[in-house]
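Technical note accompanying the year-one report. For the benefit of new consortium partners, we illustrate the data format agreed upon in the data management plan: each record pairs a sequence with a structure-token string. No post-processing was applied to the example shown here.
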Amino acid sequence: MKNAALLVGIWVGIILFAYSVVYLHSDGLTGVTLPGDAETVDEQIGFALPLPVGWSVMAVDGVAGLVSPIAGIEAWVLAVSAATVESAVAAAWEDVDPCSSCERPGVLQAGPLPSGWEGAVVSFAPDAEGRTGRAVILLQGERARVLLVRFAPGLALPARVESDLARIEAGFRIVEAEQSLPAPIAEGAA
């Protein structure tokens, strides 16, 4: 009798799981996250991303700096006024590392976003100091959100950190600040 009850319980669990997978819809794009990942939302800059264990965010002057668990990685998220990938990358570099006489790193390759957002994923060639990097650019009208990552020269990323970065880049998305509704007008006023 115990075995029959156990089998019935297992089958009910399988049916409920299958039902939830088929009939319960998520309200947005699904991203790969691990149980320890926290969702970070910054409505001022207008972005959200998964934040793996060991990573943190520091917001300073309209730029969110991502702090990695290892040295040698610099990462920022910012909003810029730009309608194209090229102008968004240029504006992001200027905001993060302003240097009018510096030569910015060249683009090794650029590809479309796998998430369905308008924009691109860009890999950078080494700069004058040997740093490489990549960026995820999300375009929305005349504004763009840019996730900019720069690596120290010769940095070998551990598999866990590489996986963390992949999840951050895949889950990076635009969020809009919620608009507050106007207060109702009292009767007899006007």
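Partners are asked to follow this layout when depositing records. Residues 159 and 165 are 10 Å apart (CA to CA).
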